[in-house]
Amino acid sequence: MDFNNKVVIVTGASSGIGAATAEAFAKLSASVVLVGRNAEKLRAVAQKCENAKGKKPLVIKADMSVDFDVKKVVFETVDKFSKIDVLVNNAGFTANGGIRDGIEIYDKVMSTNVRGVYLLTSLAVPHLVKTRGNIVNVSSIVAKKTVKSFNWLAYSMSKAALDHFTRCVALELASEGVRVNAVNPGAVRTPFYEVISVPETMLKKFDAVMPLGKIAESEEIADMIVYLASDKARSITGVTNVIDNGNMLI
């Protein structure tokens, strides 16, 4: 696979799946746009991307729940590169809480995981149509199954919405040559779990219960994202692709 002369936007690129995805595209000669809230971490990822093939990424500090920031992502990308070939909607937010815990959690989660994705995608679509590009959304298996271990009502709802968003936009844009797919990871060893205070001991328990005896690494999810964005997946659209070490089986 080769992404030379391709412009790839990756949101949530400061760590975890986003960082691994940005690095994977950079190794395949893409011009990468790194979007995230932590400028220091973005700079570290940018350096790794530049080291891969000598191409300096565009770094954009942005919060996907803020409309001005979302609009800035598209404006600055097109201003620098004049086009967009791939959009990876990876940025996500979660918070523990169920139906008794108030509407505030719902609003915060949806503003990033659904509204931010909707707005960024809508702004990117005219440019993707010109390049016959594609979109990869990072969802989760919690879009497809309830998880007893965590009280993630709003997060699960947001990922279910993202899956259907993927299908609807795929159908809308198919006639214009733009593909839209999603990846649905199970547990992945990323800083995401540190943010929600899940200890390493619990991750080891996850390893033990998975049918394949492990949870995924960020690079594995990145590999699937890159594949879906490549010409090798040119006949795939509207699909939500589970990568979970068999978690959906139990």
From TrEMBL:
Signal peptide bounds: none
Keywords: Oxidoreductase
InterPro entries in alphabetical order: NAD(P)-bd_dom_sf, Sc_DH/Rdtase_CS, SDR_fam
Listed Gene3D superfamilies: NAD(P)-binding Rossmann-like Domain (3.40.50.720)
MF GO annotations: oxidoreductase activity
PANTHER family found in the cross-reference section: EG:BACR7A4.14 PROTEIN-RELATED, ZGC:101858
Protein name: 3-oxoacyl-[acyl-carrier-protein] reductase FabG
